[in-house]
Design brief:
- By secondary structure, the chain is mainly α.
- It has one domain.
- It has ten helices and four strands.
- The chain has a four-stranded mixed β-sheet with strand order 1-2-4-3, with helices on both faces.
- The chain starts with 5 loop residues before the first helix and ends with a helix.
- The mean pLDDT is 81.
């Protein structure tokens, strides 16, 4: 495995993330057009009719998506805290953690984030927040107690890199798009189940919409997981650059990989925010080759190997 350099890795990961993010609205609007097109009667003007109806429907689609975004965007912090069981860590409870965070923030010119603790003896951590007042680094009790200062500093630097690079915003956008397709798919499944098929035309429209929504859900999920994996590589590189000690993060990841499970986490969209997948192994995406596109994180062995080549 050849390492191409920190700046090259950061540029590559950022480029890939931007491309993947652009694909979300492209897929959404593309499926809306395809749905309208498939419902048009066969005629020479089928494309023109579909295009006209599509252009008139775009503003309504964008308004609905904007409302969905606003609700999900401003409620994500509360949702994450409830899903992970994280609570504020008082300075007097652990001055060591505060000192490590403050030193890293001063060295990198970053504002001090909030610090939360997850009362779990397993080893894991994540960053959250969409702006300076809400930026938070959450650490499990296990990761605080079981890592030495260099290893814990490297983990904190990893999470601060997520904050500095606005990774949480990116992940939230991807999660929201997946949520849109998931909601549409579930609603259409319920409609199909209880409609009784009384109207053949309406039934055909629902079936087409359901199939397209399922395709959208699949593609948006693949994009979301790809973004998540790319940002983990970038945060690893950022930690190595911030601490000048890539081997400390490699050592920390080895310890984390032995026990990353956080009992409170049962949601895949929350799991992707952690430094390693916190879900029980039996609940994680399948391990065969095709199943790797549904992984929330890149293989930790590959991350460790890259860090050792700095």
């Amino acid at each position: 495995m050849k390492y191409t350099g920190l700046n090259s890795q950061i540029w590559s990961n950022n480029f890939k993330s931007v491309i993947l993010l652009i694909l979300f609205p492209v897929v959404l609007l593309g499926l809306v057009w395809l749905f309208i097109f498939l419902l048009q009667p066969a005629s020479g003007a089928k494309y023109e009719m579909a295009n006209q109806l599509f252009m008139s429907s775009v503003p309504w689609v964008l308004v609905v998506v904007a409302i969905w975004f606003a609700i999900a965007w401003f409620s994500h912090t509360t949702m994450i805290e409830k899903a992970t069981g994280s609570v504020p860590l008082a300075r007097k409870e652990n001055k060591r953690v505060y000192n490590l965070v403050e030193n890293l923030c001063i060295g990198s010119g970053m504002p001090m984030p909030k610090i939360n603790i997850i009362n779990d003896d397993s080893l894991n951590a994540f960053a959250s927040g969409i702006n300076t007042p809400t930026f938070t680094v959450s650490l499990s009790r296990g990761i605080i107690d079981k890592l030495d200062d260099a290893e814990l500093e490297a983990v904190i630097a990893h999470e601060l890199t997520h904050i500095r690079n606005r990774d949480v915003r990116l992940l939230i956008v991807s999660i929201i798009f997946v949520g849109i397709f998931a909601f549409i798919t579930e609603a259409l499944v319920r409609t199909t189940r209880f409609s009784g098929g009384s109207n053949r035309k309406d039934g055909r429209a629902v079936i087409i919409a359901l199939l397209l929504a399922a395709v959208g859900y699949f593609l948006s999920s693949v994009f979301r997981f790809a973004i998540s994996r790319q940002r983990e590589y970038m945060a690893d590189a950022g930690s190595a650059n911030m601490t000048r000690n890539p081997l400390a993060l490699a050592s920390a990841l080895e310890k984390i990989s032995a026990d990353p499970t956080i009992e409170a986490v049962r949601r895949n969209d929350v799991a992707q925010m952690f430094i390693d997948n916190p879900e029980p192994k039996k609940e994680r995406p399948v391990s065969f080759q095709f199943g790797s596109i549904f992984r929330t994180h890149p293989p930790i062995e590959k991350r460790i190997a890259l860090l050792r080549q700095f």
